[in-house]
Amino acid sequence: MSACIFCKIIKGDIPAFKLFESERVLAFLDIQPLSRGHALVIPKHHGSKLTDIPDDQLEEILPVAKKLVLATGAINYNILQNNGRLAHQEVDHVHFHMIPKPNGQEGLG
Ligand code: 5GP
Ligand code: ZN
After folding, report:
1. Total domain count, the chain
2. b/e string for 11-27 if b means 16 or more Cβ within 10 A?
3. pTM score > 0.90 for this model?
4. Distance CA 71, CA 75 (A)
5. Catalytic residues, which ones?
6. How far, in Å, from the CA of 100 to the mean position of ligand 1?
7. CATH number assigned to the domain comprising residue 53
């Protein structure tokens, strides 16, 4: 059994608030959100860093992130993807953060 926490979320072995799911992609709310609506978009293919993921497994990621941005109505937002400890990666399964800045509260998050 994989020790990867995000693989466990994909399998349904641990709970997450899922926002979108397809054959290749899962999006869910971050457990420690930096702002309201902070979501993670991940390929179902396990790999630690971006360079470990085949191109075809990445195709849907940004379109899904875009849809989540549009769903929040955020005007200001960050899409982030960390690789390696020195780059602040904590979970070794590729994930894209979608961090909306609440409208009218640009100083928060
Ligand atoms: P990183 O620093 O690796 O780019 O970000 C990892 C993110 O995963 C963090 O924002 C953290 O809150 C989130 N995270 C870690 N464990 C879990 C979990 O079990 N469930 C969810 N939903 N998010 C998690
Ligand atoms: Zn994994």
Report:
1. 1
2. eeeeebeebbeeebbbb
3. yes
4. 11
5. 95
6. 16
7. 3.30.428.10
